[in-house]
Amino acid sequence: MKHSSVFFLVAIILFFCAACSNGKEQSVRNTDENQENITSVEMNQVNADELAQQAYDLIDEAESLCKGGMGVISAAWHFGIWNAPECEVDTVMARLSAQMGFETSFVEKNCAYTPEELINGDENFDGWEFCLITAEDCLSASGVYTSVNKALEIARGLIREIPTDYENYQYLKDYYTQVAAYAAYFEEVTGSYNDLIGAIDDYESKIKTAKEPLLFDFE
User: Which of 15, 29, 74, 114 has a 20 to 30 A CA-CA distance from 67?
Assistant: First the structure.
């Protein structure tokens, strides 16, 4: 009878030991799985942050190029309207180049035609359109339009890889949309000089508003 009791107690002890062992193993497995899940979430967050930063930097680059290019166009157009008519033909190219911030030799090489083609009756220069087209030709030759388009193309692809529930997803998308609209106008300027100035103010105001929510995280 004593032997039976001993065997019974031993069996109970072994059962509880096995149960505890299984519980510990299960607990370890659960901990490992939870750790893997946490690591996966953290990695996804890191990847989204990196993609978002890259996209932001590219959009910011496109914005800066558009602003600089618009500065060149507005300066050339202003010069063509108010200063060029008072210039002698042989001084126009040098003065226009200085207004745009390009070397005269670069402008002469890349402009579509010469000032001589736009001489008015009193042998003075009268061609604001020449100044505008020359500005656009120089921007194209220096690769500004290509760089803007490439930066926005890559940024768009990066944004598409970011989860839509990412904190800054919609802000990035809005920023991209506003800069892309500005870039489209920059490449196809229309209207009068006053229209140009109004459009610049409007586009840049919208871009500033769209960009503000991103400044803390990405600047």
Answer: 114
> 38 in a domain, yes or no?
no
| pLDDT tens digits along 56-90 | 999 999 999 999 999 999 999 999 888 877 777 77
Token pair recorded at residue 147: 């760089």
Q: Which of 74, 80, 97, 78 is nearest to 203 (CA)?
A: 74
The reply to whether 127 falls in a domain is yes
Alpha-carbon distance of 193 to 6, in angstroms, equals 104
Instruction: Single out the residue of 61, 42, 65, 69 nearest to residue 218, CA to CA.
Output: 61
Structural domain contains residue 37? no
Instruction: Give the pair of three-digit tokens for residue 21.
Output: 């062992």
pLDDT band at residue 44 using 50, 70 and 90 as cut-offs: low
Q: Where are the alpha helices (DSSP H) in the chain?
A: 2-78, 89-100, 104-110, 128-141, 144-161, 169-187, 193-211, 215-218
Pairwise CA distance, residues 213 & 219, whole Å: 11
pLDDT at residue number 124: 54
**Any idea which residue has 């736009």 for tokens?**
118
Q: How many angstroms separate the CA atoms of 201 and 206, rounded?
A: 9
Count the domains in the chain. Answer: 1
In this predicted structure, the answer to whether residue 98 has a pLDDT above a threshold of 50 is yes
CA-nearest of 210, 206, 192, 183 to 63 is 183
Expressed as residue numbers, the domain containing 149 is 48-218
Is 99 a domain residue? yes
